[in-house]
Amino acid sequence: MKNQIIKIFDTTLRDGEQSPGASMNTEEKIQIALQLQKLGVDVIEAGFAAASEGDFNAIEKISAVIEKSTICSLARALENDIKKAGNAISKANHRRIHTFIATSPIHMKYKLKMTPDAVLKKAVEAVEYAKTFTDDVEFSLEDACRSEMSFMKEITEAVIKAGATTINFPDTVGYMLPNEMFKIIKELSDFISNRAIISLHNHNDLGLAVANTLAGIGAGARQVECTVNGLGERAGNAALEEIVMVLKTRNDAYAQYKTNINTKEIYPTSKLVANITGITPQPNKAIVGKNAFAHESGIHQDGVLKNKSTYEIMRAEDIGLNKNSLVLGKHSGRHAFKNRVFELGYSLNDSELEEAFIKFKDLADKKKEIFDDDIRALVTSEITKIEKIYKLESMQLSDCDNGLPMAAVTIKYKNKIIQDAAIGDGTIDALFKTVDRISGIKGELIDYKVDAVTKGKDALAKVLVKVKFDDCSTPIMGHGLNIDTMKASTKAYIGALNSYLSMKK
Ligand code: KIV
Ligand code: ZN
């Protein structure tokens, strides 16, 4: 049968957020959800409503702004979880509850301490209750791939009768081999027939998540769960961009399948997620890595110059990577800047545009050429900004007589200018200690990462910090962008402080 749609269920905002260090604030999640809609994903798993108030609010807000994609919340097979999920998605145009319980002997015995009969009963109750909020209910058999086939069939039969419309068989621990995945899904697909959509959710512990997903599609799955850049718990989930580009590039082998993805939005989506989470795909990552379309060896370069198809199996343009993009510089005006921002797919309001333009001009004074990735980084920091309770005005660094670095920082707070200075074990330590003295809030630096946005000596520095403030046990993330790495670091630290204070409000 031709043109069978493979539904893309994106879980970047839920399983992806379970990547160590990938937590996002509500505004950032909304921006990612809007981009996922533009990318064309069918279902956005926006979070796990019962996990925290923050998750609930983010799902609720995403439900209110997304029109086309279905918005889904995860829920354990528990009444309270399902109620929270149902309430969080209530404003969505298309809404789904995704409820789950583990079905493998290992999970049932050691984690749930429940008998298979009790698990089956809970699963049915969960689906029946979820149906009171929406018709679109997905049921997952957690750790399905290590579950017994007879039990999987029994529970699948029961939840379909209870009203589940999609049944998900996750390889929760990333243990399967593609031939095994094919066999399991084929048997389940024959059993389910067309009574529900079969979904896959593969983890990448052995690097086989995408291969297993493709094997499952061949066996009858019609929904695949995946994440942008392959983010996710432990080694991550199957990468959305890889699945989609395999189906497109190897259309000869997958001629009967189609996705609703606009592949030209793949690169912008990957960049947005990387800029927000601070997790940049490895350079050699398939499809979206920095080197995925670069040719290093002379022989390869020569071949590509003669004919791209000698060494390229995909076109960079097809994933939205425009290598010959217009480069802006200090003489570019408001109009050219606006156009470029618009062409890159951002929709900013007038005041956001103006602020971004001021930042652009400031940057253009210091940097000869401004690339698309610079603009993406600038605009992302603009659209996901949190209230600037503290704002960096200026900073100086010097050495004390004893050789230790000293920082002097000037910060604006509630229209007041506050200055202070501190000595630190290193420059960053001195800067951050000074900010602590000014705010009166002590921060403990948990993680610090610096990246160059583009190449060249004058590249923008993108700094990510994770800081634990005072009594709060959760590290808060902050981003800073500047041509000067120390300034970017201070901005990142102050950004984390502002996030912390906004959360406390
Ligand atoms: O990996 C997993 O099993 C999950 C389920 C909750 C779908 O993330
Ligand atoms: Zn998972």
Structure report:
By secondary structure, this protein is α/β, with parallel strands linked by helices. The protein has 4 domains: 4-277, TIM Barrel; 293-319, no CATH class; 324-383; 390-504, Alpha-isopropylmalate synthase LeuA, regulatory domain (Double Stranded RNA Binding Domain), CATH 3.30.160.270. The chain has 16 helices and 16 strands. The strands form 4 sheets. The chain has an 8-stranded parallel beta barrel with strand order 2-3-4-5-6-7-8-9, surrounded by 8 helices. Strands 11-12-13 form a 3-stranded antiparallel beta sheet. Strands 14-15-16 form a 3-stranded antiparallel beta sheet. Helix 7 (178-192) links the parallel strand 7 (166-171) and strand 8. Helix 1 packs parallel to helix 2 (53-65) and helix 7 packs parallel to helix 8 (209-219). The radius of gyration is 25 Å and the shape is globular. Bound molecules: 3-methyl-2-oxobutanoic acid and zinc ion. 3-methyl-2-oxobutanoic acid (KIV) is lined by residues 15, 74, 100, 140, 142, 168, 170, 172, 201, 203.
Properties at a glance:
505 residues; alpha/beta; TIM Barrel; 4 domains; eight-stranded parallel β-barrel; 16 helices; globular; binds 3-methyl-2-oxobutanoic acid; binds zinc ion
Strand content: 15-25%
Between the first and last Cα atoms, what is the distance in angstroms?
A: 55 Å
CATH class of the largest domain: Alpha Beta
What integer is the average pLDDT?
92
Bound molecules: 3-methyl-2-oxobutanoic acid, zinc ion
Helix-residue proportion: 40-55%
Largest sheet at a glance? 8 strands, parallel, barrel
Fold-level CATH name of the largest domain: TIM Barrel
Strand order of the largest sheet: 2-3-4-5-6-7-8-9
User: Stretches where pLDDT falls below 50 for ≥5 residues?
Assistant: none
Name the overall outline: globular
- Total count of domains: 4
Classified in CATH, the superfamily of the largest domain is: Aldolase class I
| Computed structural class | alpha/beta
Number of helical runs?
A: 16
| Cα gyration radius (Å) | 25 Å
CATH architecture of the largest domain: Alpha-Beta Barrel
